Amino acid sequence: MNYLSKSMMALCIATCLGACSQQEQYYVKQAIFPENATLEQKVEIAAHLVPTPQQLEWQKMELTAFLHFGVNTFTGREWGDGTEDPAVFNPTNLDADQWVRTLKECGFKMVILTAKHHDGFCLWPTATTKHSVASSKWKDGKGDVVKELRDACTKYDMKFGVYLSPWDRNAECYGDSPKYNQFFVEQLTELLTNYGEVHEVWFDGANGEGPNGKKQEYDWTLIYKTIHELQPKAVTAIMGDDVRWVGNESGLGRDTEWSATVLNPGGLPSAEAGNKALEINAMSKDLGSRDMLAKAKSVHWYPSEVDVSIRPGWFYHEAEDSKVKSLKHMVDIYYKSVGCNSVLLLNIPPDCEGRISQADETRLKEFAVYINQTFSNNLLKEGNQYWTAKGNGESKTYDLQPDAIFNTIMLQEDIAKGQRVEEFTVEAFVDNTWKEIAKGTTIGYKKLLRVDDLKAEQLKVTIKASRSNANILNVGAFYAAPIQNMAQVNEWNNLSRENWKKVSAQPLVVDLGKKVTLKAFTYAPAGQQAKPSMAFHYTLYISNDGKQWKEIPTTGEFSNIVNNPIPQTVQFKKEETGRFIKLAATTPDGGKATVELNELGVTVVNP
Q1: What kind and span of H or E run contains 270?
Q2: Strand-strand pairing, 110-116 and 63-67
Q3: Of the candidates 262, 267, 306, which has an alpha carbon nearest to the alpha carbon of residue 284?
């Protein structure tokens, strides 16, 4: 797993503690602190932790693409339940060449395909199950989406990755842990053997019930071993040990984002126990401060990946064609992901035809033009001069091009030598006076800072605090043109709440004020924030008098609502008429959910 043995690690650490002033000693991917190490010793070790070559190349990509595609594309769901008929998968004009060509033109360096999502449907003709493209109508069962994408990646020199959901709601053996682990490894082996080089293997942490109602215990040791044997150059993400989830699906990295983190990676029991002892998880705000180092037994190079969709959902839904993220939103995400020491994994889901939709393609091209125009001209002279800041408080001054106006500052560390900066400031020399215009904590691979439009003669960067010497690779000043912010209108409720009355809270019973014909309803968590009392599983009823109730057939699940708490609209199979509605819901933990009146919306005919 690219880790040094404990004995070699201890020797390396002892050497470093005695001789770091004479010679730089580095630790690749992981360092285990010696027992009774002081905080100063731990900080010095953390300063000399470096990425593997694969992790370094991964970070340099900056932009990678997710392609969520499968039966959900054709059913309109976000999480399928595994009972879907494979015949529903039938793209009429699948064009992987168009996917990769578009992404390549827009600056993306890698494509990751959902080869299997939670529904268990496989986008390649696997020998492990009939629930695959081999049983679909597409190409008379002779097609292979994974191969077509792999061939397109080869054609356009694009890196290739696979997402394989550990959770499988179709596999009968899911929950019979030994059998399913073998089943899963067989699927993984097919993907890592038959499609050339794989650069990233992506596992999420979903672990729900299978068809038999049992939960699965994944054999991560066997899974990792399989990957390292078959694709030793691939990075493993999220439940892997090379790349971690940033902790949200909104496109937001932390202002203080450490790649040298105390978070124990992977799905192994030892990692879970270590993180529990530190009272942290992937969503914790602090993953690498000195306070955390003081409590930790080890430090890991475990950089952040920010996954977010260009649309509200992860799979293509025609109703979301008008809800593609605005250019301003996309640029904000770029600053908060790539500009916060992370890699942006942007989801662009192919449509039912099997193509990147026109709405998504248009936005991607606008985004690419804007980013290229913004960062193509560094307004600093000699900003790429390497600078080793020796000791805290050291500064370096840079001249700006004459009459240059800037509003974005870029800082980069040489992460091949670790991540070290803990605090910095940026000052501008204006009217013969130095004025602080920006400050921050971590830098890492890249830090982007927005400031007001400014004309200055010089910029000065000061490293206020650092773990050992700071290695500054690049400094830049750029001008980002203003973007008009187009306000998006909430379209998930078209019946005025003026006459609504809450009859009861649990379950939520609402008197809509008059008899209406409903064709959909929406659950919209307040502030798009997850909370323990939010709804996950539900049953919806309708009534004319509030006494006699009729259940409306639905999926009964707000899929992925915890990680992506956006409004979820449920379309009814047929229109339903009534005056009262009742939402009986439970939380992700199985308790009674609390849904407020303003979190519920309805779509009615002729409101």
Answers
A1: helix 269-278
A2: parallel
A3: 262
